[in-house]
Write a structure and sequence with these properties.
Length: 948
């Protein structure tokens, strides 16, 4: 989702508004005895080198893994246990086609890549904050790639958000097709047995799920050397090669045995879902149904269970297979085998076309709209990845999950393959709201700002899906009488707590009541139960609570005050509901005047017992790790602390304590650690005080912890550095120097030996050299605290032989590397002159690529094309590397170093030197924690022969 540019505009507007409402200098707000200084928007949002990272493994790596030895492990543990949902058969259906028997699984790309993912987000808005959990029964955290890792547990924030809503989350075991880099070796490693015939991998899969707190695994096995093309197989063409396959019936048998052993050790708490791919004979032959070829992955020859469920491949709806009625046959076979047909998930791939995906829904359900199987959606994250704005994202979410009317009560059975019915047409809305306390601030888990009790305390972008609240069961069901036209949407411009609220807007007529149905519940009320709602409205509004009781009766409880234009908390006297069970929660709105542009905002709903004492202070706050950028301006800080001893704790808030005693909000979390990314140094301060504040379910804040102090490096004197566009040129050539000194430099002095202009005070001078020779360049950077200089000796070589463009010496050069993923990503692909191919190597850095130019030459520059140049994400661009040269291929010397590249293409220039071999050593392969290197082109530039 490309939202950054819009955010910058919104940020400018927000700052203007803030300037009108706050002190322009301090931006401080008081809340009781606490004074907040509004946190500025972050100027750096890339994760720093100590950012905790969610794990991913190749099979042999996981076999060696131990939680106790993994320094990152504690950051990846989910904190929210799986909530119990209301029994499906007790749930109300809101349209005539919903069927409680049918289930839904979503195979969703919750993070853009397998690697580099922070367990609980960082200071960016962009995140797939899926929130329609009420429509799914399981989430498969889709991930895995040949270039990063194959076994991928879900991130902690996704687990937390899902578990609040009662949704189990499965990690992914992904064996890719050979064309995508799959290797049979990885499958063999996965299926290894010990001397007693047991599968060590079964133990590891159980251990990982229990350690991190998720609910099982999805196995996708598609590695088969014989299968050339998934697309060819989809169209019915022969996808088999003439070479002998390495995939055998033995692989299939071992996989079934491993699944059985996993289930035996995991018990009923950990699931395993199998993807319809490999058959019982070890062939890659997608059945698109439950057949005799794949049923052995669900039940063995003795009718003993194997996997819990199966995701059926997508082609059951294709024209060439439609006449076979595969889902109906799958139901029949399942029932014959004594299996629940609703443990089969009919796959629909919506990654490319979303709600425009053609589907033969008449093959999914019978003439009475009763589904034959359950529903499986692959990549419903399309709603996020195809959207430009948050509003577009939420609109597509409603169309995909609800329907085109954004109202689940309006059943939309599809009459054509081009009409998307919406999942709510078939799936009942589920709920895990079964007890007190139930508190929601309607947070989606991200924001452009952060609010506390209606006050904007931070302009810093953020995402942390662990902080996502339980959002309305129904999106949206609003009963509007004649003359009223109230609509609902999530709104990021304001909030009571967190980053967003729910906005109700449209036309309202005086004394006409509109009612929004929010939640299905099963909450027993007691004599101590309290219900409070934080809200505001443009007009005076009576906001009443409407509940449905277990016996079907509806009760309306009047709010103790009318809404105004400021946030306020409405109390409801629910003493008359004591010892009764509330089955649904709605709010009704009645305005005191007619308004065509009415707006109300819902910020918090709390059903709790009476407030208890505020939380106790957090203890033992400590900095677990810290890193600084090269200039000492930004810090990445991992904080940890002991849990507050409070039964009803909701979350922790992290603050910077300012010199005047005010607080600047830095983030919030539901666990006892927090990664503070790109904390910006204020001026020349040497220390920053950090503290943690506990918050309970009643929104009461405990005392701040004792501060822990971050000490900054001394960066008062500026650092001098520069680059040059060319170091090898002919007489009369003009050469451009680019200043890359630290930002605290205020003035510069250049010295150029041999140039027409031997000195300059310009920031980025351009210099002409008239005579042949080799010349030094010196740059001095200055400020009030001092100066530093850098001299690059014999940097510039001027020779008549260097007239015009330098020669690309590396085209089709002989190559070697420390490793590569497969033959289609071999080292030679980096010198073939094409941006459609690349060298890619996985595993732990550093990675090396060596070019043999075939003869001694004069080299002076290396141009690199990184991931973005080849069409991949900019996050995959190579970050740090060293260029080395050699005359004999044995003894190399460093000639250039890059520490922090972000660009799609880069140019390293250095003093001209004689070399036959040129090597790149990549120590930071990507912008994130992904360890796979991707070089699309490596051009060595210079002259064909050595200079005398």
């Amino acid at each position: 989702m490309r939202i950054r540019r819009q955010r910058q505009i919104a940020s400018t507007v927000a700052l203007l508004i803030a300037a009108l409402s706050l002190s322009a200098c301090s931006s401080q707000q008081s809340s009781g005895k606490v004074s907040y200084r509004q946190t500025a928007e972050a100027s750096l949002d890339k994760g720093m080198d100590n950012q905790p990272e969610a794990p991913y493994w190749f099979p042999n790596q996981l076999l060696k893994w131990q939680f106790s030895m993994d320094k990152q492990a504690k950051y990846n543990v989910a904190t929210v246990p799986l909530a119990k949902r209301i029994d499906k058969w007790q749930l109300p259906t809101v349209n005539k086609t919903q069927d409680p028997k049918m289930k839904v699984v979503a195979l969703s790309i919750m993070n853009a890549s397998t690697s580099g993912n922070a367990p609980r987000g960082i200071n960016t808005f962009d995140a797939n904050v899926f929130s329609n959990w009420q429509y799914i029964d399981q989430l498969v955290y889709w991930g895995g790639s040949a270039g990063e890792g194959l076994i991928v547990p879900p991130t902690a924030d996704v687990i937390d958000a899902a578990h609040k809503n009662g949704v189990p989350v499965l990690g992914t075991v992904f064996f890719p097709q050979v064309v995508s880099g799959g290797k049979l070796k990885w499958l063999n490693d996965f299926l290894k047995q010990d001397k007693d015939g047991h599968f060590p991998m079964a133990d590891k899969l159980v251990a990982v799920a229990k350690a991190y707190g998720f609910d099982g695994w999805f196995i996708n096995q598609e590695t088969d050397p014989e299968v050339k093309s998934f697309d060819s197989a989809a169209s019915g063409k022969n996808s088999q090669s003439t070479t002998k396959s390495g995939l055998t019936k033995k692989h299939a048998q071992l996989m079934q045995q491993l699944i059985k052993e996993y289930k035996q050790k995991a018990g009923s708490k950990l699931d395993l879902m199998w993807y319809d791919s490999m058959t019982k004979d070890g062939k890659m032959d997608w059945q698109n149904a439950l057949t005799k070829e794949n049923q052995s992955y669900l039940v063995d020859a003795n009718m003993k269970p194997v996997a819990d469920s199966m995701f059926l491949n997508f082609w059951w709806t294709k024209k060439r297979l439609a006449s076979q009625d595969l889902l109906k046959k799958s139901r029949d076979r399942a029932e014959k085998l004594g299996l629940n047909p609703y443990n089969l998930f009919a796959g629909i791939d919506v990654q490319a076309d979303g709600t425009s995906t053609p589907v033969r829904w008449d093959l999914f359900a019978n003439q009475h709209n009763v589904p034959y199987t359950s529903l499986g959606l692959y990549a419903p994250n399309w709603t996020y990845t195809s959207s430009e704005t948050p509003d577009e994202f939420q609109s597509k979410e409603e169309t995909l999950w609800v329907n085109s009317h954004s109202d689940p009560s309006r059943s939309v059975p599809s009459k054509t393959s081009s009409q998307w019915p919406g999942v709510s047409t078939y799936a009942v809305e589920k709920s895990a709201i079964t007890k007190q306390p139930f508190v929601t601030n309607f947070s989606l888990g991200n924001g452009y700002n952060y609010f506390i009790k209606g006050r904007k305390v931070s302009l810093r972008d953020w995402n942390n899906r662990s902080l996502q609240a339980i959002n309305p069961t129904y999106r949206w069901m609003i009963d509007n009488p004649s003359g009223n036209d109230l609509k609902a949407a999530f709104d990021y411009t304001d909030a009571y707590d967190g980053g967003n609220d729910i906005q109700l807007s449209g036309q309202m007529r005086k004394n006409k009541t509109s009612t929004i149905k929010l939640y299905t519940t099963d909450i027993p009320f007691t004599t101590n139960t309290q219900v409070k709602v934080a809200a505001k409205a443009t007009d005076k509004t009576q906001l009443d609570l409407v509940v449905t009781l277990k016996d079907g009766r509806k009760k309306t409880i009047k709010g103790d005050q009318a809404l105004s234009s400021k946030w306020q908390t409405i109390d409801y006297d629910v003493s008359g509901l004591a010892k009764k069970t509330v089955k649904s929660i709605s709010l009704s709105l009645t305005t005191s005047k007619s308004d065509t542009s009415y707006r109300a905002q819902l910020g918090r709903l709390a059903i709790t017992g009476k407030p208890q004492a505020s939380p106790t202070a957090v203890e033992s706050v400590a900095i677990d790790s810290r890193v600084f950028d090269e200039e000492g301006k930004y810090a990445g800080v991992n904080l940890g602390w002991q849990a507050a001893s409070t039964k009803h704790l909701d979350h922790y808030e992290i603050y910077q304590r300012n010199q005047n005693g005010s607080r600047s909000f830095l983030g919030a979390t539901d666990t006892t650690n927090f990664y503070l990314n790109a904390l910006e140094r204020t001026g020349q301060q040497n220390e920053t005080d950090l503290m943690v504040v506990p918050v309970d379910i009643w929104n009461q804040r405990g005392p701040a912890s004792k501060v822990t102090t971050l000490k900054w490096p001394d960066n008062r004197k500026p650092k001098a550095a520069f680059t040059v566009d060319r170091t090898l040129a002919s007489p009369g050539s003009t050469i451009k120097f680019t200043n890359t000194s630290s930002k605290n430099a205020t003035s510069f002095k250049w010295q150029f030996t041999g140039a027409k202009q031997t000195s300059s005070t310009a920031k980025n001078p351009t210099v002409t050299y008239a005579k042949a020779g080799t010349y030094n360049v010196t740059l001095t950077a200055k400020n009030k605290d001092g100066q530093r200089s850098v001299t690059m000796k014999k940097l510039i070589t001027i020779t008549p032989k260097a007239k015009g463009a330098l020669t690309v010496l590396s085209k089709n050069a002989k190559t070697s590397a420390s490793g590569y993923t497969n033959s289609s990503e071999a080292p030679k692909m980096a010198v073939d002159g094409k941006l459609s191919t690349k060298w890619c190597a996985t595993g732990k850095a550093p990675h090396t690529l060596t070019l043999d130019l075939g003869h001694q030459a004069t080299v002076s520059a290396v141009k690199l094309a990184h991931a973005k140049a080849g069409g991949e994400s900019a996050d995959m661009n190579t970050k740090a590397w060293t260029i080395q040269v050699s005359t004999d291929g044995k003894h190399f010397k460093d000639v250039a170093r890059t520490y922090d590249n972000t660009k799609a293409t880069s140019l390293n220039t250095f003093a001209a030197t004689t070399a036959r071999y040129v090597r790149i050593v990549v120590d930071k392969p990507t912008q994130v924690a992904d360890t796979a290197v991707r070089i699309y082109e490596m051009d060595v530039l210079g002259l064909n022969s050595p200079l005398k």
